[in-house]
Amino acid sequence: MRIRNETEADIPAIRALVSTAFAGKAYSSQTETAIVDALRRNGALSVTLVAEDESGIIGHIAFSPVMIDGEDLGWYGLGPIAVAPERQREGIGSALVREGLAAIRKRNANGCLLLGDPNYYGRFGFRADARLRLAGVPPEYFQALCFSGEMPAGMVTYDAAFEVTND
């Protein structure tokens, strides 16, 4: 398996992968494919990586800037992340997270936020922190990983791409 930056030629395969990875998942809004497309259109995909092997693209991860209390504090949001259903539990997602976090650190990120399973993301150092809030989500699933400085406090907003619907 190889992890690399996405290219324009990868976009159709990424769309198919993300759609398949989230199909039928109770925790999914089924808008993840539209979110990735909208992030790309908005120029908000700061880091977007694919995992591939001889069969093609088997994983994808996106990172985009977030605002905290309306300010750009050098923090990024992780997500969506997708792995082909038949390839899950092989370490592909973990490898994408590690590579992605390293890539945003190279961009001098101060930290990363995500909405996800605390049991999974805790292994990378993510923890819920009451100082950071995301409207409408259970606080234990909204997690932060601070790279430098103090943990900020405030309401977090993601790019408008996260508000897309499938209508």
From TrEMBL:
Entry-linked InterPro entries: Acyl_CoA_acyltransferase, GNAT_dom, MshD_Acetyltransferase
Pfam family, any one: Acetyltransf_9
Signal peptide: none
Keywords: Plasmid, Transferase
Limits of the N-acetyltransferase domain: 1-152
Sample GO molecular function, one term: acyltransferase activity, transferring groups other than amino-acyl groups
Cross-referenced SUPFAM superfamilies: Acyl-CoA N-acyltransferases (Nat)
Name listed for the protein in its UniProt record: N-acetyltransferase
